[in-house]
Amino acid sequence: MEDALTTYLEEARPRQLAELQAWLRIPSISTLAGHKADVKQAATWLMAQMRQAGLEHVELIETETQPMVYADWLHAGPDQPTVLIYGHFDVQPVDPLHLWATPPFEPTVRGENLYARGASDDKGQTFLHVKAVEALLQTRGGLPVNVKFLVEGEEESGSRAIRQYVPAHAAKLAADAALISDSHILAPDQPAVLYGLRGMWTAEVTVTTADHDLHSGSYGGAIHNANQALAELLAQLHDAQGRITVPGFYDEVRVLSAEERGRLARLPYGEAEILAESGAPAVYGEPEYSVVERTGARPTLEINGMWGGFIGEGFKTVIPCQAHAKISCRLVPYQDPARIGELVTRHLQRLAPPTVKVEVTGTRGSHAFLTPYDTPAIQAAARAYALVFGKEPVYTLEGGGIPVVNVLQEALNLPVVLMGFGLPDDNLHAPNEKFYLPNFYRGIRTSIAFLEEMAGTDT
Ligand code: BES
Ligand code: MN
Ligand code: MN
């Protein structure tokens, strides 16, 4: 990097940090209706930043749910490729609040980390691309490639609007590659490109055993308790080894080659790391798969919440007539969320004894994502990482999901580059979310390096 840009980036650090902190102060929780105005404010704050950075056509895209922001800079010339940068400015709820060392919307630097909800997921990682573009426009007056931004406010609640918007605006969003920083690398100095993400299917299960709650003295022993019935049902969904018992559940699952399994086994990440991060006493799950495979390449069925009956103060001898659970499946290529929904629903119905009525209300969910990584755009990302981090990236699978990736891949026909800058212990969705600041600044430089590496690339 030439001197002017290096000097600029060094001097700009305190301002870049202060700006990110200002964005993080906006509690843009998309899953809570009471925060709708905050999500909008996070959008308009970003728009002001984009204009100041020198981006053009900055636009607020209102939807039925949460807004999105579009912006571009298209003066690199028709011979240069176009990069579409995606991110999200909505965040997860903050409970349990009392476990935060500092309040979630008062971004605080401790040591080398910035603590706040959204610091890593995904305001910090989105903002670094705005700062990269700004640095290039301020020091050189131009970008090496054409750039479009599409940033949404609904990722944490399923990306409904953007998944409709993208196919309907394919010409406007036309590009040669999509770039997303909404994931983590393996260690501070070990960059990682993701070539797969898991998909999702979610549902609510309701079990009914009577038409009203009953006295457990008069009816106990003769009428099935709904809490018990729900526990019995859900307990049958896995075997003792952690395999899912739903018939047909694994039929479509992508089988890993020996080569891929060998490569995943050599990653500098495994049981020790996952135990240290989680505080769990032992790992769980299918014994014939490594934890990287279990989280990256195997599907799951999770019980996210259960409720029913009496949980108030004191004591109540009652047989609850109804109990509920929220369940979700993490899906892998080539599972179809709608088919998984049918299989799980049918299995629960079949397991239900005559004493129990089961209802499953499901949503369709999203498909898993998979991309080859020997493509020009991903190799440009690999060179950018290597240049800034001084180390070649590894290629890995991630268990989380980003619902829009398949739409970018299929509706826009783009190679999707998943180039993250978070760390595995960033506490995403949990108390004390953080972003490791040295990698915020390295992320800005890596973003610049990526745009430079993309210039002249024939995708
Ligand atoms: N950024 C995460 C996904 C992620 C996490 C990718 C860790 C790579 C590493 C994203 O914001 C997220 O939380 N996605 C949700 C999607 C859901 C709410 C539709 C998820 O995976 O639960
Ligand atoms: Mn995210
Ligand atoms: Mn998230």
In short, what is this structure?
The two termini are 24 Å apart. It contains 13 helices and 18 strands. It has helices at 3-24, 36-53, 123-140, 160-168, 216-219, 226-235, 258-265, 271-278, 291-296, 337-351, 376-389, 405-410, 437-454; strands spanning 56-61, 68-73, 82-88, 108-110, 113-115, 146-152, 177-180, 192-197, 199-208, 214-215, 300-308, 318-319, 322-331, 357-362, 369-370, 394-398, 416-419, 434-436.
Defining key terms:
9-stranded mixed β-sheet; alpha+beta; 4-stranded antiparallel β-sheet; binds ligand BES; Alpha-Beta Plaits; 13 helices; 459 residues
What does this structure look like?
By secondary structure, this protein is of the alpha+beta class. It has 2 domains: 2-197 and 368-454, Zn peptidases (Aminopeptidase); 199-253 and 299-366, Alpha-Beta Plaits (2-Layer Sandwich). Helices cover 34% and strands 21% of the residues. The protein has 13 helices and 18 strands. The strands form 4 sheets. Strands 1, 2, 3, 6, 7, 8, 15, 16 and 17 form a 9-stranded mixed sheet that branches. A 4-stranded antiparallel sheet has the order 11-13-9-14, covered by helices on one side. Helix 1 packs antiparallel against helix 3 and helix 11 packs across helix 13 (437-454). The two termini are 24 Å apart. One manganese (II) ion binds at residues 92, 121, 156, 428-429.
